[in-house]
Amino acid sequence: MEELQDASIHHTAAKLINTIKTLKNYEPLYENVQKLVCSPSVDRNDMCNTLEEAIKNAGLETEIRNIIFHLVRSKLKPEEKPSQININDPLAYLKRAGVQWDRRVRKSLNAMCSELKMASQGQPRISTDRDELLSKWDELSNYTIDLANYRPVYAPKDILDVLLSLKGPTKAAENTEQVPKWEFSHISLPVKNLFELRNHYSDLLRTESYAGSSDMNLQCQRVLESKHAPLCQHLLRKGNTPAPYRGALWSFVLGSHVNSFDIEHWNRLKANVLATDHIVDKLVFKDIQLTASNDDQYFVFEDVLYQVLLCFSRDTEIAQMIQFEHYPIKGKSYEAPPSGVVPFHGICMFAATFCYLFDSPINLYFTFRAFYIRYCHRLTTINTHPQGIVSICLLFEKLLQTHEPQLWSHFRELQIQPIRVVFKWLMRAFSGHLPPDQLLVLWDLILGFDSLEILSIFAIIILSFRKESLMQVNSLDSIEAILADLSSVQVLPLVQLALSRD
Q1: Count of alpha carbons within 13 Å of 361, Cβ hemisphere only?
Q2: Sign of the CA dihedral 331, 156, 318, 63?
Q3: Are 98 and 327 spatial neighbours (Cβ–Cβ below 8 Å)?
Q4: Rounded to 5 degrees, what are φ and ψ at 276?
Q5: pLDDT of residue 209
Q6: Which of 493, 352, 420, 336 has its CA nearest to residue 159?
């Protein structure tokens, strides 16, 4: 047994070393270690101990620990190849649906290109357009562009309709008439019950979560001085992060601090935007004008949102880092934007939240990008990830059935799918629905616990909080009207209430 454990540890260590060597920050890190080896603080006769001490004193140990923290969380997980998929897998239909959805979205984008006579992979930008774009880069709200013929490729409702139409493998003894087709109960994804959620979010139920502001300021200062990502993550679990420290804490947790090579990457993305005219540029402008520009909380950030999302659309590293579903299906393949992400209605609201954390577009960009890759992508594609939108919907339905049976029965009597009422909240992680200060608290908890399950918990407690009004109406429009205004909602006390009740 010990030999097997040793072999496993050795394999993991070797995998870590090989992966670290592929990172952008490996070369500067390696150079710093080389400098330490040549320094007087390292004794050749006791190389191992003195070099280890020098690395620690120089702060490189913390940097290496943070790199390993981020790698273990994401990049070291095995990816499933198409050839490895078992056709008897009970989730095979869901994986196939994910690939088909992605192809359908790309097909729609390509069809729009054909309709508007644009190249699907972009075309050189004419010089006058390039000069105008460059001159107005910091004031892109003044950039003139005709968007009359452009429309969002898809919206939350479109992906929900696909999810609700999915049919899983029918069991021989199953009475399909007793299982409403709009429930997610046929999906065999593991989700937690309330007891397991309490254990996962137990830090939220401790009295120390109510620490005073001066005490939290001091804790934030000490943790940020340590530069230790796991400590920053643990601090976010309290849910009352002081605003001046939030951006720095999020950057450590997401590993998104900006280095010189990141600035070079940003400049290359900007140059690509200026050089190439792509259909996604119009979709970005259209989405911002339909959403953030009309929102009292975000319209002032319109210019920086154009910069961030235009560069996001050109970032090929995103396509490399995102884990898409794999499933071998026949049919024509369609071109995707360079980032692999087709803009959808409301995508800019994910980025808009970060405008309250960073003054610099570059710092904002890399933290938003890291958050999107780790969390938002799972909410906006059909996938089998335990933190994906399907799992989050399934968790919502199970919690509603178990802990709000009256509401569940009320929805069923009205023939209204409960998930239709909250799906836009879940898919957009409440961005554009909660006031910014409360949305930041909710996202603190997502980062602190590294889990999107908080979205289902929060959606349930909002329905519970307005249960009396919901029980008195009998139409979807009336239900949506009751739930439309979340301006008075306080995230932390409601989540704590949801977790503590029987």
Answers
A1: 19
A2: negative
A3: yes
A4: -125, 135
A5: 47
A6: 420
